């Protein structure tokens, strides 16, 4: 397993609406990760930032922004943008530097400050921009796409609104004891179903909010880890795959899919292919996973992910949820952190935060939400415009 | 009488009786594209750079749908007060692609399901003093 790297330290700034500059959250997360790792900032050789597009130029050069805030130390730097997958891309950038032998120890960080409400396109008349046109012509918001996926589950597999509400109830319970979660409140099925309808069949409490937050990680070569710390948790694989043509599932922000008229369908649809690549690279399978953190942009989308990461066959996710398999205490808990349901989305930090959560479980440091005996876990998410993101962490 | 103009130029025919979306086809591999692709064929097996404009099938079947109960942000142009609307994803059999569109005015989400046959119609999206700006919508063929 020569392709592993060690995770020496993790840190987060709690998610919320704090009204501060994003740099504040990222620096706090970095300081916690460095402390957790027992590594000095001056010893970091490479800084890998996940970009935010909402915070001006410092957000586009996030790696340098955080390096400057911590005090220029001469480290090499990179900044990555891959929408919701930015954190995994930044992590992969640092990992490949280490695996190539170009550096021994790196800091990975992402943080965001977000506006309220629906994520809307930039202002002004922009009829050549498909992201602008989907709002103008169709009123197709992000929840529109979540509603389409949810309704299709209902009609294809007989899923119910109650099933979706139960995914929210489960995640809300998981997040209750998580100090980094923004929402720490239990919900009943009725409360979820009585919240205002947004994109039928999905209610307000089933759709992820946007949040401020920051997450960071110190990673190193296995050799560096051996010198500084015994038995570090390891990154076994990172998948940052793009789709294979033709991509026949409608995706944000598109108004149409590829045409499958000429080409045969790929072996796996895009979301399935994300985890598949991570499993292949790690030499592991879904049966080896003890927990998962998946991108529950909506309650119903969490169920799609069960199938996309191979926890069950298509159409079986509701049964997995209802049997308690994915609840902490079950065979393979999903979103023990509380997921996006309890965090809301802080785009460049989220994929890093997913990995932080796995690390705490594999170390046995997750407190009341601890998945007992966890030895391996997987994260999965998908960034707009064809960015896959999946990380497998092992003991 | 106001002039009838498309809300977006060149995306559909302005035939009120039997409108069709306008896509392109790669002249080398014959793959369909909507919205029009006119630069690079996206089929990885093909390096085609020549495209012809083609009208797409005006009927398809519902892949999924969702009724919207919250007013979206600009640039959506909402009636005042806001009226819920349904977005349908519709699969075209010949082109083997899914295209989004709102359901025609007066059609309720409960009148359709996955698999319902729908056809393309044109409706006014917004207007000014001298023009109606039209957009495509989907309407059940039995409606
Ligand atoms: Zn072609």
Question: What keyword list fits this structure?
Answer:
heterodimer; A: about 400 residues; alpha/beta; two-stranded antiparallel ribbon; B: about 140 residues; mainly beta; 5-stranded mixed barrel; 3-stranded antiparallel β-sheet; globular; binds zinc ion
Which regions of chain A are unreliable across 5 or more consecutive residues at pLDDT < 50? none
Strand order of the largest sheet of chain B: 5-6-7-9-8
Average of per-residue pLDDT values of chain B: 96
Q: Please state roughly what percent of the residues of chain A sit in beta strands, choosing from under 5%, 5-15%, 15-25%, 25-35%, 35-45% or over 45%.
A: 15-25%
Strand content of chain B: 35-45%
Q: Main beta sheet of chain B: strand number and arrangement? A: 5 strands, mixed, barrel
Number of helices of chain B: 0
Task: Explain what you see.
The complex is a heterodimer of chains A (395) and B (143). Chain A is an alpha/beta fold and 395 residues long. Chain A has a domain at 5-117 and 210-228: 3-Layer(aba) Sandwich (Peroxisomal Thiolase, Chain A, domain 1). In chain A, 37% of the residues lie in helices and 18% in strands. Chain A is built from 14 helices and eleven strands. Chain A has helices at 22-37, 56-60, 62-70, 86-99, 130-138, 142-157, 161-175, 189-194, 222-228, 270-282, 299-308, 317-322, 339-343, 347-363, and strands spanning 5-16, 46-50, 76-80, 105-112, 197-199, 202-203, 212-220, 233-239, 291-294, 376-383, 387-394. In chain A, the strands form two sheets. A nine-stranded mixed β-sheet of chain A has the order 3-2-4-7-1-8-11-10-9, with helices on both faces. Chain B is mostly beta strands and 143 residues long. Chain B has a domain at 58-140. Helix content of chain B is 0%, strand content 43%. Chain B has a five-stranded mixed beta barrel with strand order 5-6-7-9-8. In chain B, strands 3-2-4 form a three-stranded antiparallel β-sheet, with no helix packed on it. Chain B is globular and about 50 Å long. The model of chain B has no long low-confidence stretch (mean pLDDT 96). At the A-B interface, helix 5, helix 6 and strand 5 of A face strand 3, strand 5, strand 6 and strand 7 of B. The structure holds zinc ion. Zinc ion is lined by residues 26, 28-29, 31, 41, 43, 46, 48 of chain B.
């Amino acid at each position: 397993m020569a392709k592993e790297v060690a995770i020496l330290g993790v840190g987060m700034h709690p998610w919320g609406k704090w009204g501060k500059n994003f740099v504040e959250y990222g620096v706090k997360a970095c300081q916690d990760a460095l402390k957790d790792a027992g590594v000095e900032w001056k010893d970091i050789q490479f800084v890998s930032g996940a970009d935010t597009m909402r915070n001006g130029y410092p957000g586009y050069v996030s790696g340098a922004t955080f390096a400057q805030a911590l005090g220029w130390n001469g480290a090499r730097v990179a900044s990555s943008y891959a929408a919701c997958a930015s954190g995994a891309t930044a992590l992969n950038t640092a990992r490949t530097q280490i695996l190539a032998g170009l550096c021994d120890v790196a800091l990975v960080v992402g943080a965001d400050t977000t506006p309220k409400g629906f994520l809307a396109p930039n202002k002004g008349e922009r009829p050549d921009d498909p992201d602008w046109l989907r709002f103008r012509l169709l009123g197709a918001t992000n929840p529109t796409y979540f509603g389409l996926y949810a309704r299709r589950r209902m009609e294809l597999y007989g899923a119910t609104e109650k099933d979706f509400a139960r995914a929210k109830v489960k995640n809300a319970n998981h997040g209750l004891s998580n100090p980094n979660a923004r929402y720490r409140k239990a919900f009943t099925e009725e409360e979820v179903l009585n919240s205002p309808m947004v994109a039928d069949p999905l209610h307000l409490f089933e759709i992820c909010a946007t949040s401020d937050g920051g997450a960071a990680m110190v990673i190193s070569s296995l050799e560096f880890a051996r010198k500084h710390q015994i038995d570090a948790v390891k990154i076994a694989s990172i998948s940052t795959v793009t789709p294979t043509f033709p991509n026949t599932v409608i995706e944000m922000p598109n108004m149409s899919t590829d045409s499958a008229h000429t080409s045969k369908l790929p072996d796996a649809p895009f979301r399935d292919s994300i985890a598949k690549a991570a499993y292949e690279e790690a030499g592991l399978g879904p049966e080896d996973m003890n927990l998962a953190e998946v991108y529950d942009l909506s309650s119903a989308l969490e169920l799609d992910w069960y199938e996309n990461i191979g926890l069950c066959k298509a159409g079986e996710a509701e049964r997995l949820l209802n049997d308690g398999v994915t609840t902490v205490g079950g065979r393979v808990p999903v979103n023990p952190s509380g997921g996006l349901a309890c965090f809301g989305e802080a785009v460049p930090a989220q994929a890093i935060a997913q990995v932080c959560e796995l690390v705490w479980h594999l170390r046995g440091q997750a407190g009341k939400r601890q998945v007992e005996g966890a030895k391996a876990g997987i994260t999965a998410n998908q960034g707009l415009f064809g960015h896959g993101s999946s990380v497998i962490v092992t003991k | 009488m106001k002039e009838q103009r498309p809300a977006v130029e060149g995306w559909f025919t302005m035939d009120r009786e039997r409108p069709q979306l306008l896509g392109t086809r790669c002249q080398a591999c014959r793959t369909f594209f909507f919205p029009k692709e006119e630069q690079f064929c996206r089929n990885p097996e093909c390096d085609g750079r020549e495209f012809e404009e083609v009208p797409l099938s005006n009927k398809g079947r519902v892949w999924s749908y969702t009724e919207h109960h919250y007013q979206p942000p600009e640039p959506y142009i909402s009636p005042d007060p806001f009226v819920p609307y349904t977005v349908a994803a519709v699969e075209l059999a010949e082109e083997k692609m899914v295209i989004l569109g709102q359901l025609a005015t007066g059609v309720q989400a409960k009148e359709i399901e996955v698999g319902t046959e729908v056809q393309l119609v044109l409706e006014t999206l917004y207007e000014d003093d001298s023009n109606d700006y039209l957009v495509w919508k989907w309407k059940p063929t039995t409606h």
